[in-house]
């Protein structure tokens, strides 16, 4: 920071020390706006970043969030790309927010939108998603955590697996596959097979370690290991599904669906994700729904029967877990 900016920040931080939070926020906006008009982006960002941190440390989350969002807006005007420095400022502020601060979510949305527009990841920067998801996981906010961790970094799978297992322990023993699936299926839907395998491995390892009386059979192949749980057929299905994806055999996938059809049909919401996985990894297209009127017209006029073939779904997801995994 320049000496002039240093003085401005010091004066504003003094107001915060004196408890004049609103005045500090408003004067910060005025000071930053002057530099924005001059297109002196660095000075505007320095002021906003430093004063926002001071307000967060004073537990003034609402005022701080306003300045944080303004800082993201300056990033956008300056067309700042996500790098270690630009992301670091945002994450420093994010970690200082209190869990109960309602404006934090808006700040997270804004920084994800900025990183998606000016970075290389259409769903938002993985580092930002990882930190946001990890914070939500620590706060026991699983739905928000899942949304971010599934499109996070290579370290996100471990955080997600631990969170799902912790959540599972609050439920009945037979529900283990449902919680494991909350990590495994979304990872497969975004094309991250490695993270899906990591989630399965960590979840089943914890399950085995914590339940000495649980009957477990270890099965090893040339490429991977899998645990078989005779009392948890859907957990076996998930492990075998991961092996089938390695082989890429449609026949093996269809065989799994047939073998476990009864158990799968008893679970709400697995059908659509598994259908999408069949398309993505095994080239199995969804059967066209028959429309008698369209079929008759097609026969009369010699045209195709109603519309283009279904498109292969892309493995990008930035929303909540697929229906039925909630």
Automatic annotation (TrEMBL):
InterPro entries: GET4, TPR-like_helical_dom_sf. GO terms for cellular component: TRC complex. It comes from the Eukaryota. One of its GO terms (biological process) is protein insertion into ER membrane. Residues 295-326 are annotated as: Disordered. Belongs to the GET4 family. This is Golgi to ER traffic protein 4. It comes from Emericellopsis cladophorae. The lineage of its organism: Eukaryota, Fungi, Dikarya, Ascomycota, Pezizomycotina.
